[in-house]
Structures are given as structure tokens and as C-alpha cells.
Design brief:
Layout (H helix, E strand, L loop, with lengths): L9 H7 L2 H41 L12 H15 L7 H23 L3 H33 L4 H67 L1
Amino acid sequence: MPGVQHDLSFLGLFMQADIIVKSVMAVLALASLICWTVIIEKYIRIAGLRRQVRRFEIASRSPERIGETPGDLPQGIVAAGLSAWRDFDKTETRAERRERIERAMRETLMRRLRRLEHGLPFLATIGSAAPFIGLFGTVWGIMNSFSAIAQSQDTSLAVVAPGIAEALFATAIGLVAAIPAVMAYNKFSVDIGRLSYRVNAVISDLGNRLARESSRAHASEAAE
């Protein structure tokens, strides 16, 4: 309306919006904050796990030192493998023994990776839903603009601009929440898959060694 000044800053757009658009903006801002919390937490944890895997790969080249690898993941995998190695069954073939040892180690790996994946479904949900939530706020803001036009009988930019600006701001917040969430989800999923592949390679080598040592040890016992 003539003479009315509108604040088109981010805070002004939020304060001038009606309760529905404000709610949409608040939900998206909160979702974005939670997404960044998850992203930072996952980045730190995956970086730490990557260091453990690198040390595990290096230690696997020296079998006598592999049990000394620092980190809960390598130690948990080695402990699971040794536990399965000690559980000797004379009816097993070497291939069956190796499969059982590797299965025990892989179960330990999968439990750790499942814990690491906590929070990723939230990123995927926000990445897919946030643009549509923002679009809802956009549609509602445009409806407000048309209502303002109908009430004032004025189609000037001063009447239309505030509602349109609020609508576009809701869309922008939706994209701000969605884009990092989608990018982080894709990156972390790929990183976890690569780490799993690398650890499984070490597990296969370690399982083969343990099965071979088990066969030798029990063959010596039988000879005695």
C-alpha cells in the first residue's frame, strides 16, 4: 500500500511473513541446522575411520603386528577373527574354516558401519523433502500476494513484491537445506562403501592366513 515501507532483509522477510510461511521457514532452518550437525559429525567420524583403515592395511602386511593396530575397528575385527579361529571344528575343511572366520570379522565390520550410517537417512529425507516444503511456502506466499492485490485493487510492485519476496525466500531456505544434505549423503555413502571394500580386502587376506595357520596347528597336534 502507498506509504508503507517493507523491510526486504532476511530477518524482515521472516518477520513480515504470515504464520504459515514463518512455520515453513522455521522448520527448514531447523532442518538445515540439524543437517549441518550430522554432516560435521559424520565427516569427523569417517575421517577417523579412514585413518584406522589405513593403519589396518599397513599392519596387514606384517601379520605379527596386525593385532597391535590402534583403533576399535581393527581391534574388534581381529578379536572376532581370532575367536572364530580358536573355535576349531575337526569336521571343517579349510575353505569352510576360512569362510567362518571371515564371516565373523565381516559381521563386526557391518555392525560398526551400521552405527556410522546413523543420520544418513535424515540427510536423504531432507534432501528430497526440503524443496517441496519450501515450494509449499512459495505457493502460500504467492496466494498472499494475490489476496493483497484483491484487497487493495492495486497491482503495483509495492503491493506484490513483499509476498513474492517471502515466497522466494521460503524456496531459497528449502534449497539451502536440501543441496548440502544431498551432496553430503552421496559423499558419505560413497566413502563408507569404499572403506567397506578396503576392509573386506584385508579381512579376506587375514581370513586366509588364520585358516592356514589353524590347519597347520591342528595338523601338528594330530601328528604328535
